[in-house]
Design brief:
The structure holds two protein chains of two kinds. Chain A is of the alpha/beta class. Helices cover 36% and strands 13% of the residues of chain A. Chain A has a domain of 112 residues: TPP-binding domain (Rossmann fold). Chain A has a seven-stranded parallel beta sheet, sandwiched between helices. Among the domains of chain B are: 59 residues, no CATH class; 171 residues, Substrate Binding Domain Of Dnak, Chain:A, Domain 2 (Up-down Bundle); 160 residues, 3-Layer(aba) Sandwich (Rossmann fold), CATH 3.40.50.2030; 72 residues, no CATH class; 109 residues, no CATH class. The chains are: A alpha/beta, B alpha/beta.
């Protein structure tokens, strides 16, 4: 499958297409350099199966970086059971709305989020949310962690088979751990 | 608006007389209301004046302005968009658009394509924000135009059949307030079919004006576009009400009947051994004439008349022996089953490829609407026998017939003949054929890359090729029946048919019951529940409306409806969502319509009917303001919307909203201040209308008792929002039912449901409880200790409960601010 084509082909995006993350060092660098990153975890993160398990593990592995996690929909309880404590439970539209407000001080009140990591949302919904962020949150970079290419993101994972995608995320965790700021947690 | 003559007119049906000493039996004294009217017929049997006697005088007046009501008319009868712009801006100052563009471009004129991303303007100067709102306006104009056209067709058809004097009657003695939307918008109370022409002319003019505003170089401001969206929605509800009023009246559909019959739903209820006619669409006269033809020719019961989408709903309102197959998403699966012997389509939500699908099972198709000619030859004026012969012989794949009575005759005769010669065979493969098809699958995954519900088709095919069809069968439950998977298959595998094959007899065994659409809500019902609703003691009205573009099948709608009915909300339903609720059985084997009563009351599920019956949902909210609160409706939109917004805890859930009509229906609710939640695909409507609970300054109202501005908290927090999951929708709906006017007992009850649902479905209490607790009396008794400990830090507020309004003039013009805490 072509790595850089929208997973649902009709969701072609706009005049700018997301940059591909094929090198784990790229995502690690994006995370490392961000001053106020945030993870938005949708309900598919806690869905049974390999994708959910991999995403849970990745988010958990980021724990040491103190990146706040916002759970959407009804995801909070299961995330907590999986060892991740979100800083907030919000509707996904509500968090996107806040992110599009340039005066919003972020989920912890420490400043606007310059990096938004989205994951665990249905493809079509995620596509329009990324489009909303692209237009409304121009100072934020967006990254999608799911194994499907999203043209509306700033940076996107490629379309990958689950095993290859899992390897890529693991490599990102390793790259973060090896970096100066890499206090990746074993929570 | 000008008055035609001096004050004091009489009206009796269409007879309007000046205030002479002429006697007019059954006349109503009219004061103060004026409107445009056409085709007025005046007849004097005998009139005695001070100058002599006149006998048998008949006059026809092409048009006139006349007085048509016994109530004073408010400030905005027949409003243009700008007449209600201030009200819209009040709402839109709280609920600002969150834009979610489908793409970066505007492609609407030859200046473009223009890239609007990153703050760029188009060649015409338009911004991305305005462009998105403009697209929403276009969608709602399409929706409003569709319903207005539908209503126009019905009114014209029924006037030609029954005369313009045919009385409107939607509830016999149970409904005096029969046209709440028309009264509110147009400022008059229609009494006959002919009375509605003025309302329709108004609607048509408004939709034209709104559409014109979307032209290049017209409206530029996104909020003004949004205001026009609201206007389109209001017009849409007017058209909905007209359409359903006239069909209820003329076809004697259930008249506000809470005990409307339970009618069959599902393919399993169809006797495939009989000739079977399938009707699809929304505009029911052709389908009714099919029924009439069978009755008139002693064929009732000999022919199965089944339907999909709203025509099916309306057909069962006319004849409970008709069969509803399912929502719009059942089109392909039912046709491919091979059961129908003839397909008759009218308008709206009809698949564009049905002629091909009909041909594939060797049955003809009859198109019946000028809006959907399907490329077929118009044979309306041809001899019926010749048409039947052409259809049965297969000389033509279908015909266009624009006369419903002609449709009735041709359809029944054709179905009988086709059935006699046709061996019913569908296009769904048998299990061996399925496995052979599956073996051809190369696993490229293109089907999954077009599937709107992201079903795992490729892996399911792989399993099926090895003889295990279980995964493919499971897809049946979530499939929306779009068929896109087939078009992209490089091996030309009939993927959708393979899914149907894997599901085996599931389709054939679908046997459910749905309560026939009851139409309006009775005045008495409003009297009984108006108080508890406004005071908050019935926790809310949750209305399930809209199409079948569900992400996880029909089951979620039924589950949500049952959840709220069990919690003693008033649950309302219409259209495909009403069917979806019926396609469910509880542990005891009961459908929700058997489990819950059909009254407009706490703990009941009220199926109002088809898409056009949505007007009875907005109408019920409006009637609460009139019947319970004694507010004048006539031409008084902003005041009534303000009342509904602040007091009636209603929320709509359009879980599978797909169409432009769904957009206009939703926008009609928004202008009344009624929030709407959509499912994940609803995010594709390109923008949400959302409040900010973290901005206290947004949540002030005027207290009409004091004129002071007081903080009331974010109630309701949003006007239009996508929920990601069923669980989120349930919690949101409970929250969005809160209103400033809730009494402590009512707020306590609403909070109980919100907190309980949040805790059960999310695993935690929400973090915004403090925003909804105005005083200790609001705290649910069963959770008192837990909530008190949460509120301990900031203390328990002591906020008064205002008599709320958003309109300065309603507050006596005083604008003092007070935080109330």
């Amino acid at each position: 499958m072509a790595h850089e084509q929208a997973w649902i082909r009709a969701e072609t995006g706009g005049t700018k297409q997301a940059s591909l993350i094929t090198n784990p060092a790229v995502l690690a660098a994006l995370i490392r350099k961000a001053e106020h990153p945030v993870v938005i975890a949708g309900h598919l993160v806690v869905q049974p199966g390999k994708v959910g398990d991999t995403l849970t593990r990745f988010i958990r592995d980021l724990g040491g970086l103190k990146i706040p996690v916002v759970s959407t929909a009804h995801t909070y309880r299961e995330l907590k059971e999986r060892g991740i404590t979100p800083v907030a439970s919000m509707g996904v539209m509500e968090i996107i709305q806040r992110l599009c407000d340039p005066e919003w001080k972020g989920i912890n009140g420490t400043g606007p989020h310059d990096l938004v990591l989205l994951t665990g949302l249905s493809y079509s919904l995620c596509s329009v949310l990324l489009s909303g962020l692209k237009q409304g949150a121009r100072n934020s970079k967006t990254v999608t962690l799911d194994p499907k290419y999203h043209p509306n993101a700033s940076w996107s994972m490629p379309n990958r088979k689950e095993d290859a995608w899992e390897e890529l995320l693991s490599a990102v965790v390793c790259a973060l751990a090896e970096s100066g700021k890499g206090e990746v947690s074993d929570v | 608006m000008a008055q035609a003559a001096g004050a004091g007119y009489y009206l009796s049906e269409n007879i309007i007389l000046p205030d002479t000493r002429t006697r007019v039996s059954a006349g109503n004294h009219i004061r103060g209301a004026f409107m445009n009217r056409k085709n007025i017929h005046l007849t004097w049997g005998e009139a005695q004046t001070n100058r002599g006697t006149v006998k048998n005088l008949a006059l026809h007046i092409g048009s006139a302005r006349s007085i048509l009501s016994d109530q004073p008319v408010g400030p905005t009868p027949f409003p243009d968009h700008t007449d209600l712009r201030d009200w819209d801006r009040i709402l839109l100052s709280r609920y600002k658009p969150l834009y979610l563009p489908f793409c970066d471009l505007c492609c609407l004129c030859t200046y473009g394509k223009c890239d609007l991303s990153g703050g760029k303007h188009g060649a015409c100067g338009i911004t991305m924000e305005a462009q998105q709102s403009r697209i929403v306006l276009l969608a709602t104009c399409i929706g409003a135009a569709t319903h207005t056209s539908h209503a126009r067709h019905l009114v014209s058809h029924l006037i030609s059949r029954f005369s313009h004097r045919f009385p409107i009657d939607v509830g016999e003695s149970t409904v005096d307030l029969s046209a709440p939307v028309t009264m509110l918008v147009c400022g008059f109370r229609p009494q006959t079919l002919g009375d509605l022409e003025a309302a329709l002319e108004y609607a048509e003019r408004q939709v034209t004006d709104l559409l014109a505003a979307a032209h290049t170089g017209q409206e530029a401001d996104p909020i003004d576009f949004e205001s026009k969206v609201f206007h389109a929605g209001m017009i849409d509800h007017l058209a909905l009400e007209i359409a359903d009023m006239v069909q209820i009246s003329a076809f004697h559909l259930p008249k506000a009947d809470p005990d409307a019959k339970l009618v069959p739903l599902g393919l399993g209820t169809v006797d495939a051994k009989k000739p079977v006619i399938l009707v699809i669409g929304h505009n029911v006269p052709p389908a009714i004439d099919i029924i009439n033809y069978t009755r008139d020719h002693d064929l009732a019961g000999s022919v199965e008349i089944s339907g999909i989408c709203c025509t099916a709903i309306d057909l069962t309102r006319y004849d409970p022996n008709a069969k509803i197959i399912g929502p719009i998403s059942w089109q392909l699966r039912y046709i491919r089953s091979g059961v129908p012997d003839l397909i008759v389509v009218d308008e709206q939500c009809v698949r564009a490829d049905l002629l091909d699908e009909a041909g594939a099972i060797s049955v003809p198709l009859i198109a019946t609407s000028g809006k959907n000619c399907a490329g077929l030859v118009d044979r309306t004026d041809d001899d019926a026998s010749a048409i039947v012969e052409d259809l049965v012989s297969g000389r033509v794949p279908g015909v266009l017939l624009l006369n419903p009575e002609r449709v009735g005759e041709v359809a029944v005769r054709t179905a009988l003949s086709v059935h006699a010669k046709r061996i019913k065979k569908g296009t769904i493969p048998n299990i061996l054929e399925l496995i052979n098809w599956a073996a051809l699958c190369g696993g490229c995954g293109e089907c999954m890359r077009t599937c709107p519900v992201e079903s795992p088709i490729a892996s399911a095919m792989k399993q099926a090729a090895e003889g295990d069809c279980s995964t493919l069968a499971a897809i049946y439950d979530i499939c929306i029946g779009c068929g896109r998977c087939e078009d992209v298959c490089v091996q030309n595998i009939p993927v959708h048919s393979c899914i149907l094959a894997a599901a085996g007899d599931t389709l054939l065994n679908e046997k459910f019951l749905v309560r026939a659409g009851r139409g309006a809500v009775q005045d008495l019902e409003i009297r009984e529940v108006g108080g508890p609703i406004v005071l908050g003691e019935i926790p809310g009205i949750v209305a399930f409306v809209g199409c079948a573009n569900f992400e996880k099948g029909v089951g979620e709608v039924a589950e949500m409806a049952r959840e709220f009915a069990r919690r003693r909300y008033i649950v309302m339903a219409s259209g495909c969502s009403a069917m979806a609720i019926g396609m469910y059985r509880n542990e005891e084997g009961l459908t929700p319509y058997e489990e819950f009563e059909g009254r407009f009351d706490a703990g009941c599920i009220v199926n109002v009917g088809s898409c056009v019956s949505n007007a009875h949902i907005s109408g019920a909210a409006i009637k609460i303001a009139s019947i319970f609160a004694k507010r004048n409706l006539l031409g008084n939109y902003a005041e009534i919307a303000d009342y509904v917004y602040n007091r009636v805890g209603a929320v709509g859930i359009a879980w599978g909203a797909m169409s432009q009509k769904a957009a206009s229906i939703a926008s009609g609710f928004w202008r009344l201040g009624i929030p709407v939640i959509v499912g994940p695909h609803g995010s594709k409507y390109r923008r949400m209308l959302m409040g900010r609970k973290d901005k206290d300054e947004d949540w002030y109202v005027y207290d009409t008792r004091t004129g002071e501005k007081v903080y009331v908290g974010p109630v309701p927090e949003h006007l239009f929002i996508t929920a990601e999951t069923q669980e989120e929708a349930i919690v949101l709906a409970a929250k969005l039912c809160m209103r400033p006017n809730d009494t402590p007992r009512g707020r306590s009850m609403k909070l109980t449901h919100y907190l309980d649902l949040h805790k059960r479905l999310y695993g935690i209490l929400p973090d915004d409880i403090a925003l909804f607790v105005r005083s200790a009396a609001d705290i649910p008794v069963t959770m008192k200790d837990e909530i008190l400990s949460l509120l301990e830090k900031d203390g328990i507020p002591e906020r008064s409960i205002p008599n709320p309004t958003m309109i300065v003039s309603q507050a006596g013009g005083r604008t003092e601010e007070k935080n109330g805490s």
